[in-house]
Amino acid sequence: MTAADTTSRQLGDPTSAYRGTRSRAWTVTGLLVVFMMINFADKSVLGLAADEIRADLDLSATQFGLANSAFFLLFSVAAVVVGMYADKVRPTTVILIMALLWSVAQVPPAIGGGLAVLIGSRVVLGAAEGPAFPVAQHATFSWFPDHRRNLPGALVTLGVTLGVITAAPGLTWIIDHHHWRTALWVLAAIGLVWAVAWYFLGGTGTHGSADAPARAAAGTDPSEAADEPVPYRRIFATPTWIAVTAAYFTCYWALALMLVWLPSYLHNGLGYSSAEAGRLVVLPWTMGGVVLLTQAGVTGWLMRRGVSTKWARGGVGGAALGLGALACLGVPLVDGTGAKTALLAIGFGLAGSYAAVAATTVSELAPAARASGALGVTNAVVTTAGLAAPAIVGFMVDKQGTDGYQNAVIITGAMLLVGGLLSATLVDPSRDRARLRA
Questions:
Q1: Which helix (H) or strand (E) is 264 found in, with range?
Q2: Distance separating alpha carbons of residues 288 and 347, to the nearest angstrom
């Protein structure tokens, strides 16, 4: 071993550490992709079974919307609390506990009961799933230096898309042939299997993880030396955090509508059969997956060529939201179910890609000791869209009939347009991170 190698090891060279743990890093990333797949399969099941649940429990659209909104009642609070906690300890155990709670929460409505049981289980499930995305992103980023985070961050976000794409046809078949409660039992079993796999294979890396302050103090990771803890209020007062959170809010509004009401819109509003709607609902998620990987590739390509993240993240993400907005606003302007379905797939697919932009931007902006907490608060604010959107659209459908679905898409398009403009004009994490350090 050369003197340079010895010195590199003594200094804890980040590149050397990355190479030594690369296989483990991608194993953990793969598990967290599946983690997010299960997360969104859990979220999507009620939307896929909307008509069956409403008929079985004799619910109005407003009541069904409220049951879905109940999922987000403690979602945001849990995201903040667990996000802050994950800054102090490795998130491995937190993730395991969340996965186990997901399975437990599915059991009461799977056994039986009415609206009260359904709402209670969704509240518990939402509390357990609220921290999932920020903690999963934080755990993933802990295995990679900042300049390598775009792809793994995008893959974890892609788990959202893959969860719906893989779950929708299968869950729809189970719902049609074996009752919607059976689908809950299947999801509970899948969550339990994943928890066992995570127990043996999961873990946390050393890039910007919970032990970053200790490593910086010990001089083992010079890249963390400048990341002195700063008050959260300073992070949340930056134009970047405000703009990226507002833009992500519009993205999550669109995601909530896709999960809860898009299958019903395709079936009741556009006239597709329930089986056709179950297959077509994957189109915007598929589109979102393609856009997500493209966005990650373009962002990484721009950053490698020295383009600032103001454009590589804020500009690229804002452009995706803007194009999604135009597609949504175009839905009432075209005739025919095929054209409307295509615009819905494009609009909602482009909108959903912003989650990866938000996660990597906040991670870049916040010092390592505040990264998970900042992501948790971002997620908490953003997911209030999930609390509001299902109930509001349910009320619109009760009052306006099938026109309520299309009007909800128009509102979504207007929101996405505002979010895209904010992202493209105000997001500049490198500028605001420098101000935080100063």
A1: helix 262-264
A2: 9
pLDDT digits (tens, 9 = 90+) for 224-280: 444 557 899 999 999 999 999 999 999 999 999 998 999 999 999 999 998 899 889
Per-residue three-class SS string for the chain: CCHHHHHHHHHCCHHHHHHHCHHHHHHHHHHHHHHHHHHHHHHHHHHHCHHHHHHHHCCCHHHHHHHHHHHHCCHHHHHHHHHHHHCCCCCHHHHHHHHHHHHHHHHHHHHCCCHHHHHHHHHHHHHHHCCHHHHHHHHHHCCCCHHHCHHHHHHHHHHHHHHHHHHHHHHHHHHHHHCHHHHHHHHHHHHHHHHHHHHHHCCCCCCCCCCHHHHHHHCCCHHHCCCCCCCHHHHHCCHHHHHHHHHHHHHHHHHHHHHHCHHHHHHHHCCCCHHHHHHHCHHHHHHHHHHHHHHHHHHHHHHHCCCCHHHHHHHHHHHHHHHHHHHHHCHHHCCCHHHHHHHHHHHHHHHHCHHHHHHHHHHHHCCHHHHHHHHHHHHHHHCHHHHHHHHHHHHHHHHHCCHHHHHHHHHHHHHHHHHHHHHHHHCCHHHHHHHHHC
Structure-block tokens of residue 313: 């993240």
Tokens read off for 164: 């719906």
What pTM was computed for the model? 0.78
Reported for 276-280, long-range contacts at CB under 8 A and 24+ positions apart, including other chains, are 278/48, 278/168, 278/169, 278/171, 278/172, 278/173, 279/168, 279/169, 279/172, 280/341
Condensed to tens digits (0 to 9), the pLDDT of residues 326-358 reads: 999 999 999 999 999 999 999 999 998 898 899
